[in-house]
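Chapter summary example.
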Amino acid sequence: MTLVTPDLAWPADVLPVREAQHAFFPAVRDQDPYLFKVRATDLAGRETEFSTPLLFLTENFNKGADLVAAAAAYNALDPGRRVLRRLRGGGLT
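The structure predicted for these 93 residues follows.
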């Protein structure tokens, strides 16, 4: 698990934003986007660990119509910016 945030590069917004809103993938000098180590549990209680980028949204961007717009804009990103991860045979729903 990523327990300590590494020294991050200055973020660049990856989604359309309004004043005082930000949406970005954290990055470090040699990895853009940064891959956080995470653990997930499926409905049967099985755990799996994997690395994945995380999209950070400011609090005023993560609810209602703004959240719907953020999800749509994320899904419309160039596939190179949306990193898919294999879960070593596991699946999440």
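To summarize the output: The mean pLDDT is 81.
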